[in-house]
Amino acid sequence: MCQKVSDLVTMDSIPEHELSRLEALARTDQPLEMLIERRKNGEPLQYIEGTAAFGPLELRVDDRVLIPRPETEGLFEIASRMVRHPEVILDLCTGSGALALALKNEFPGTSVFATDISEDAIDVALANRHATGLDIYLAVGDLFDPLPASLLGEVDLVVANPPYVSDVDFLTLPEDVQREPKVALVSGPTGLEVIQRIGVSVAEWLRPGGVVICEIGESQGVAASICFTDLPAVVRQDIVGRDRYVVAVKP
Ligand SMILES: C[S@@+](CC[C@H](N)C(=O)[O-])C[C@H]1O[C@@H](n2cnc3c(N)ncnc32)[C@H](O)[C@@H]1O
């Protein structure tokens, strides 16, 4: 017997707004029941849909990348306000390419370089580069390693949303967040390991007056800002007042 949508809602307690998005996706080869089952099993809605909005862009996402978050859109907005006519931008830990592509869209004349340690993530970013037609440079590797040495001291803006969850805190994350790649979330025992490595190296890549903006966990403000050893770093808040970004301008 064919089930009615209202029966499925009651059975699976999927919020109404999610249910209407799943209904819009349902097709003969992907019936609504199957989509509801996937969601019920903890698969994030954006992975089921295969897309996520980021600023003005609609990006492809799947379980190879972190789903871009509103906090990271906040980072993009701060960056867009802080720099004028940048020539060179770096996006470390690019994942789906969200920040790199949004910044290229905002500043079309800029050369944007983006790296990620995950080959899978770079494959998704390449698909997004193709789909958006935004011409950014993408490379697999550890933080600054894949970048040409010619960029040392030449960069106007470095952005990064690195993994910043500790091993222990990972276990407390909601089930659907734990379905995202662990390498995108967890940096090690303290959660600060990747931020620290960005903090000690970033100054040599920036030109004088260049800006770095790094997303952090809400309890990491003080600890993260002192990782930026050669720069006068300050902590900035997101729209609901949580410590979310370390920002520094190279003197
Ligand atoms: C929190 S996700 C951010 C993804 C994307 N920038 C965003 O905001 O949606 C962190 C990303 O960092 C990458 N990553 C982790 N360790 C890295 C490293 N040492 N060097 C470069 N990328 C790294 C992960 O593969 C993941 O794609």
**CATH class category of the largest domain:** Alpha Beta
Could you tell me how far the N terminus lies from the C terminus, measured between alpha carbons in angstroms?
70 Å
The number of helices is 12
Structural class: alpha/beta
- Name every ligand kind in the structure: S-adenosylmethionine
- The best one-word shape is globular
- Order of H and E elements: HHHHEEHEHEHEEEHHHEHEHEE
Tell me the number of structural domains.
2
Which CATH-level-2 architecture of the largest domain? 3-Layer(aba) Sandwich
CATH topology of the largest domain: Rossmann fold
Q: Main sheet? A: 7 strands, mixed
Structural commentary:
- By secondary structure, the protein is α/β, with parallel strands linked by helices.
- It folds into two domains: 5-41, no CATH class; 64-249, Vaccinia Virus protein VP39 (Rossmann fold).
- The chain is built from twelve helices and eleven strands.
- It has helices spanning 5-12, 16-25, 32-40, 45-49, 70-82, 98-106, 119-132, 167-170, 175-178, 182-185, 193-205, 221-225; strands at residues 51-54, 57-60, 88-92, 111-116, 137-140, 155-160, 165-166, 186-188, 206-215, 233-237, 243-249.
- It has a seven-stranded mixed sheet with strand order 5-4-3-6-9-11-10, with helices on both faces. Strands 1-2 form a two-stranded antiparallel ribbon. The chain has a two-stranded parallel ribbon with strand order 7-8.
- Helix 6 (98-106) links the parallel strand 3 and strand 4.
- Helix 5 (70-82) runs parallel beside helix 6.
- The longest helix is centred in the middle third of the chain and has 14 residues, at 119-132.
- The termini are far apart.
- S-adenosylmethionine binds next to helix 6, strand 4 and helix 10.
